[in-house]
């Protein structure tokens, strides 16, 4: 619920004034909590303890939170990535016209709005334009482009921005606390997940639960150290820290090894680019990763070197050779400016 001050204030004000639009379009990056706010809206409309806000603790709020309240329904594609089809829209339109509601309000969340077909939207257009009193539509979308113009013209837009890292951390911890498989997440991975998620708690959660992130982090740590020390560390042989980290990050069956190596280098490079971007912004880099020596100009050159490495990987270069060449280049760049 944090980080959405503007969107929440907009909805709360509308609720207080009784001007809540009956068709709303929640627009913002994936995973920032649009669905969470839709649920909060249902609580605010139904809660008998704190009308207009939702207490979050009463049986009504609890049932909304656990999807056992009929006053909040989700219309989603039958399969992930599929469409919201005309049959579902027709059924919804008929039901909203005739069926009794639980409570005075009924919130229908269509997620994602991009999945609604032309026919499906037409089938529920009348209901969406002039619904029965108490019916609120929430259409969830990650961007405005790609939506039907008819949707845009009929909905009030509520914008969601990316969250600050602090807010992502709070949302991530809350999400992890509800999972039974989340007990073993190392602190370094949690921190990395927050930094990499770019303002999206959903993305942070996926990253935090991904154990391969540890190996990527370890490989970056050793690569940064080697790039600081030079050829002796970059080509130190199979027992060196860099080679050990490489072996762990690329471990797996012989088949698919080249692709796995490219992916490992690609992910390590992405992490390194994030590290440099943060340092260029005057913030801390990735935890435990040595900074490349030098000034901003050299860090900008290092960024170019890593982007060039990514291009080589996309062209199917040998991942290990390309990686070592980039480390050598990063090292000699350091020397050039030192
Ligand atoms: Zn309540």
Q: Could you please describe the fold and organization of this structure?
A:
- The protein has 338 residues and is of the alpha/beta class.
- The protein folds into three domains: 155 residues, P-loop containing nucleotide triphosphate hydrolases (Rossmann fold, 3-Layer(aba) Sandwich), CATH 3.40.50; 44 residues, no CATH class; 126 residues.
- The protein has 15 helices and five strands.
- The chain has a five-stranded parallel beta sheet.
- Helix 10 runs antiparallel to helix 12.
- The two termini are 48 Å apart.
- The mean pLDDT is 89.
- Bound molecules: zinc ion.
- The site of zinc ion has 8 residues, from helix 3.
Topology:
Blueprint: H1 5-17, E1 23-27, H2 34-46, H3 59-65, E2 72-75, H4 86-98, E3 106-110, H5 118-129, E4 135-141, H6 149-154, E5 156-159, H7 165-177, H8 187-196, H9 201-208, H10 212-229, H11 231-234, H12 241-249, H13 257-280, H14 296-314, H15 319-337
Parallel strand pairs: 1-4, 1-5, 2-3, 3-4
Helix pairs in contact: 2-3, 4-5, 7-9, 8-9, 10-12, 10-13, 10-15, 13-14, 14-15
This protein binds zinc ion.
Residues 47, 49-50, 54-55, 58, 60-61 line the site of zinc ion.
What's a quick, concise take on this entry?
This protein has 338 residues and is of the alpha/beta class. The protein has 3 domains: 5-159, P-loop containing nucleotide triphosphate hydrolases (Rossmann fold); 165-208, no CATH class; 212-337. 56% of the residues lie in helices and 7% in strands.
Number of strands: 5
- Quaternary: single chain
Order of helices and strands: HEHHEHEHEHEHHHHHHHHH
Q: Radius of gyration, Cα only, in angstroms?
A: 25 Å
Number of individual domains: 3
Low-pLDDT stretches: none
- Specify the number of helices: 15
The CATH superfamily label of the largest domain reads: P-loop containing nucleotide triphosphate hydrolases
Strand line-up in the sheet with most strands: 2-3-4-1-5
Beta-strand residue fraction: 5-15%
Q: Could you give a short account of the major beta sheet?
A: 5 strands, parallel
Query: What is bound: which ligands?
Result: zinc ion
CATH class (first level) name of the largest domain: Alpha Beta
Quickly give the CATH architecture of the largest domain: 3-Layer(aba) Sandwich
Mean pLDDT: 89
Shape: elongated
N-to-C terminal Cα separation, in Å? 48 Å
Helical percentage: 55-70%
């Amino acid at each position: 619920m944090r980080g959405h001050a503007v969107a929440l204030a907009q909805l709360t004000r509308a609720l207080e004034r009784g001007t809540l639009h009956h068709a709303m379009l929640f627009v913002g990056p994936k995973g920032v909590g649009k669905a969470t706010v839709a649920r909060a809206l249902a609580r605010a409309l139904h809660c008998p303890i704190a009308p207009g806000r939702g207490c979050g603790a009463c049986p009504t709020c609890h049932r909304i939170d656990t999807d056992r309240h009929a006053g909040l329904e989700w219309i989603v594609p039958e399969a992930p990535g599929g469409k919201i089809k005309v049959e579902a829209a027709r059924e919804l339109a008929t039901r909203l016209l005739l069926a009794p509601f639980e409570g005075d309000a009924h919130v229908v969340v269509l997620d994602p709005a991009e999945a609604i077909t032309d026919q499906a939207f037409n089938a529920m257009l009348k209901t969406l334009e002039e619904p029965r009193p108490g019916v609120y539509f929430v259409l969830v979308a990650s961007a405005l482009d790609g939506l039907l113009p008819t949707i845009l013209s009929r909905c009030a837009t509520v914008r969601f921005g990316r969250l600050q890292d602090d807010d992502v951390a709070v949302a991530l911890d809350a999400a992890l606390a509800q999972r039974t498989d989340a007990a073993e997440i190392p602190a370094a991975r949690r921190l990395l997940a927050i930094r990499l998620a770019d303002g999206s708690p959903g993305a942070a959660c996926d990253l935090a639960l991904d154990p391969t992130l540890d190996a990527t982090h370890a490989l970056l740590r050793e690569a940064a150290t080697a790039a600081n020390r030079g050829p002796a560390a970059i080509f130190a042989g199979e027992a060196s820290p860099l080679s050990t980290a490489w072996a762990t990050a690329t471990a797996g069956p012989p088949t698919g090894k080249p692709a796995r190596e490219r992916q490992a280098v690609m992910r390590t490079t992405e992490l390194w680019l994030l590290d440099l971007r943060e340092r260029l912004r005057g913030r801390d880099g990735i935890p435990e990763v040595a900074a490349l020596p030098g000034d901003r100009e050299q860090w900008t050159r290092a960024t170019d070197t890593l982007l060039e490495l990514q291009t080589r990987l996309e062209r199917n270069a040998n991942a290990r050779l390309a990686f070592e060449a980039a480390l050598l280049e990063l090292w000699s760049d350091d020397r050039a400016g030192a």
